[in-house]
Automatic annotation (TrEMBL):
Gene Ontology molecular function, alphabetical: mRNA binding; structural constituent of ribosome
Protein name: Ribosomal protein S1
Organism listed in the record: Thermanaerovibrio velox DSM 12556
Domain of life (superkingdom): Bacteria
GO biological process, alphabetically ordered: translation
């Protein structure tokens, strides 16, 4: 029979009230020990952590430092009162002030590490996601744990990559090293890329040959050339193969990421090196140069280089001509830099076109010929100021003006006999000379110093001839003698007579 005293007004028996003894029995039945993973409820939040009810005789304390760890990729925030969380018991205190010490990250780390072990048991390739760039490499999310990929293992050997480019991207890797106690994971992307590239390279070498035209993307621009990604390999376009123009700079022709057409000009399978040419994938401007340029044609160009023997001028992209030093100026030039400078725009005339030898001869002085009006400026018997520019065995060359030179023959240097011109003149000396002949057709002017010396003597002789005889009105005896004329005879006159 049911005890009527245990019946309530509704006729239902009330549960037997819990006693301290029954509560202690329930607590003792919970298996709580160090290392246990239990689920509990956050009942209080403190400055240094949280109190969590895990069904033990006392609340457990979860310090803030035990909430997460640098080895864990944390995706949740700190808990609030009332939240249910999984924790691991790190210590079970005894005595009156017994308290449980809890840790969340240890529980998370063990679960995630075990998951990683299971994946590695199935395959040696796992997927990771780039988190952040660090010194020396990249931190990735690997099964919720932080792994490290050294920069040397981010790309295939010999090819650099910016780790920041992989942040936020998912890609496969292989395990290099793992240490659970040190919570360390080292991974590699290079090994997978090299395996993939090895297969691609075999196909590349089988199908690509020298002379083929390919398309690729500019991966980097340097001072010595441009690297082009062809998929299986990267090829180098040396700076000399960038353009038909002389001295072209890579940064002025292409930019990183540009799609370009290149010609394969060299394959080194042993070292996996491909030599490419950008300019040879374009039309050679010298192929039909004779149809565009002819002798006598005038044009403008830019001086690209100066050499001891002349100046190179680009008259169109990829086509250069040479102004020989003798065609720079009508006056004597020791170096082209005395007339032109690199980068200067000049007007030239075509003197020669040789398409087979890829040569074009240009003239600069021909457009400014000072001999065009020489006949108007100079005439026979004119006395001019000249400058000695050089001496030869047979005479002295003198400059009347820039580009106009004449010759004083050794026989015209003096009325006296001259053994060598240097006895009379020196280079750089300025003297007066008389023009004997002007011949613009043959670009020749003859001058004389001797003619200026003979003029005073000739004038004296003519003056003596014109002088009247003196009358002797006093019948001096001398008046009966014949008049004798004064006569001057020089060594020069004697030499002339002998000649």
């Amino acid at each position: 029979m049911v005890d009527e005293s245990m019946m309530n007004n509704s006729g239902v028996c009330d549960p037997e009230p819990e006693t301290m003894e029954s509560i202690m029995e329930q607590i003792d039945s919970v298996n709580i020990h160090r290392g246990s993973v239990v689920e509990g409820t956050v009942v209080d939040a403190r400055e240094d952590g949280w109190l969590v009810d895990v069904g033990y005789k006392c609340e457990g304390f979860l310090p803030k430092r035990e909430w997460t760890h640098r080895a864990i990729v944390e995706k949740v925030g700190e808990p609030q009162v009332g939240d249910r969380i999984r924790v691991q018991v790190t210590n079970v205190g005894q005595g009156e002030e017994a308290q449980l010490s809890l840790s969340r990250w240890r529980c998370e780390f063990d679960e995630r590490w075990n998951a990683l072990e299971e994946k590695l048991a199935q395959s040696d390739v796992i997927e990771v996601e780039g988190i952040r760039k660090v010194k020396g490499g990249l931190i990735v999310d690997c099964c919720g744990l932080e792994g490290f990929i050294p920069i040397s293992h981010l790309a295939e050997e010999g090819r650099g990559i910016n780790p920041a480019n992989l942040v936020g991207k998912t890609f496969p890797v292989k395990l290099v090293e793992k240490d659970r106690r040190k919570r360390r994971l080292v991974l590699s992307r290079r090994s997978i890329l090299e395996e993939e590239l090895s297969s691609l390279r075999e196909d590349f070498y089988a199908n690509v040959h020298e002379g083929d035209i390919l398309e690729g993307d500019v991966s980097s621009v340097t001072s010595f050339g441009v690297f082009v990604n062809l998929g299986a390999l990267e090829g180098l376009v040396h700076v000399t193969e960038l353009s038909w123009q002389r001295g072209a700079k890579a940064k002025d022709i292409v930019q990183k990421g540009d799609r370009v057409r290149v010609k394969v000009i060299g394959i080194d399978r042993e070292n996996n090196r491909i030599s490419l040419s950008l300019k040879q994938a374009q039309e050679d401007p010298w192929v039909n140069v004779t149809s565009r340029w002819s002798v006598g044609q005038k044009t403008k160009g830019v001086v690209t280089n100066l050499a001891d023997f002349g100046a190179f001028v680009e008259i169109e992209p990829g086509v250069e001509g040479l102004i020989h030093i003798g065609d720079l100026s009508w006056s004597r030039v020791k170096h082209p830099k005395e007339v032109l400078r690199k980068g200067q725009e000049v007007e030239v005339v075509i003197l020669e076109v040789d398409g087979e030898r890829r040569r074009i001869g240009l003239g600069f002085k021909q457009l400014n010929d000072p001999w065009n009006n020489v006949a108007e400026k100079y005439s026979k018997d004119q006395v001019v100021n000249v400058k000695v520019v050089r001496l030869a065995d047979f005479g002295a060359f003198v400059e009347l003006e820039d580009g106009v030179e004449g010759l004083i023959h050794i026989s015209q240097l003096s009325r006296q006999r001259v053994e060598k011109p240097s006895d009379v003149l020196k280079e750089g000396q300025e003297v007066q000379a008389k023009i004997l002949e002007v011949n613009p057709a043959e670009r020749r002017i003859r001058l004389s110093l001797r003619a200026l010396e003979e003029e005073p003597a000739q004038e004296r002789r003519e003056e003596r001839k014109r002088r009247p005889a003196k009358d002797d009105s006093h019948g001096s005896p001398k008046s009966f003698l014949p008049q004798q004329e004064e006569f001057t005879f020089t060594i020069g006159d004697h030499l002339n007579l002998n000649q």
